[in-house]
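Following up on my earlier thread - several people asked me to post the actual chain instead of describing it. Fair enough. Here it is, all 333 residues.
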Amino acid sequence: MKGMIQKNVYCIVVCMLLLKAATCVADPPPPTTGHPHSGAAVEEEPARFEEAAGHTFGFDDYTNWSQCANDYYSTPRVGRCTLPYASVAAGAVGTSFFRLKPISPQPTVTFSVNNSHLSFSPASTQTSRAVGFSPSSEWFSSAILDASIDSTQIASLQIQSLKSKTIKVGVRLVHGNTYNSSDISDNDIQSALTNIFRQACIEATIYRLSEKLVNFDLNNDSKLDVSEWTTNEMNKIIEKCDDNAYHFMVYIVSNPSDNSLGFAWFNQRHCFIHSGGGTIVAHELGHAQGLYHTYEKNSQLPQKGHDKHNVMDPFPNQNTTKLRYSQWNELNH
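Reply from S.P.:
Thanks for posting it. Predicted structure:
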């Protein structure tokens, strides 16, 4: 009888929490795309999966955020993620932090998945804690990890298993016949490429090549003409500096004609970097692998405003280090 009473209490508590969360989602309604901060109350959830510090792959709670980008980036955040995503390389181990709202009495949360190719640990918990998961080595698909109390689902995480890929990136500093270019450190470039592309289960390794002096400044204006893809001056650099041993080539050349940070076209091998740090290199390599700017319709990203931490933001900086679910799949398909 005591067990039956405790079970009923747990069910009542969970139902009350879920009802409260559902009420917050429905009232007030989410703002339309790109609207300013709505001022709505933070939506409460009985539990949620969050990004874990030890997770070395991707985590995306932005794509399915219930409000606009301004609310996602506000402090505190406004809204909730209806279904977060986590990426992990097939055969590797990923981690998410499961946050459980304290209630009394504290029930047991049971974890389950809808696909036998994904293992996880632990099987259950009564507290907030890290949850590990690992897909089979030759399985490349997605599965849902559910958290439930007495068969009532309270939180979910979609896990995307991706094939491990490697890309080799040649990096060359190029000086002109009328001026010298400023370099970017190998450590800065490698650190950015590792942190960003590993979210799509891609290991990007840079190879520093010897500097070259190229007589590309055809009009002697001490600038590199980048008015289109590609100009005669850019072609001079590609002709003299390319190396087919690498998947992609990065040419560090200062003084572009349009004062841009970098330039690369879609789905080709060459990237021109003019200034900035490693995130600029990652941004242009994103273009070279088919990624568009965040605001462009071809990006396949949810158009809910300014995703200012996305590496494909049109104004990349040291904080633009995130890739989202659709970008993982575009890079690793």
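The longest strand covers residues 165-176. That should answer part of your original question.
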